[in-house]
Amino acid sequence: MSYGELLVANSLAKASGKPFEAIIAMKAKIRGWGELSRKLGVNPDSIATRARKASEQLTFASTRRDRRRDENIRDAGFRTSPSLNAGGAPGG
Questions:
Q1: Measured between alpha carbons, how far apart are the two ends of the chain, in Å?
Q2: Using the 8-state DSSP alphabet, how is residue 42 labeled?
Q3: What is the DSSP string of 52-89?
Q4: Residue 23 pLDDT > 90, yes or no?
Q5: Is the dihedral angle over the CA atoms 73, 79, 82, 88 positive or is it negative?
Q6: What gap in Å lies between CA 89 and CA 87, rounded to an integer?
Q7: pTM surpassing 0.70?
């Protein structure tokens, strides 16, 4: 299962009050997440909204991590472009 599918399964478990393992077992017998969501009485749009928000948060965190990494590299005296700092020496 992908991280996205795990998020959907977890969301359905929380919204339905069923154990995560039960959701996974049910998904194995049902075609799609939307169908499972409707069977559980959970609005599929609420699950999609949660997945979108999680995706946005991951994108933000990844961007912030990359920016901090680049700042740390510059602060240490390294250039961020691999072609300008091929030997790994400080200050290029």
A1: 44
A2: -
A3: HHHHHHHHHHHHHHHHHHHHHHHHTT--S-TTTTTT--
A4: yes
A5: negative
A6: 5
A7: no
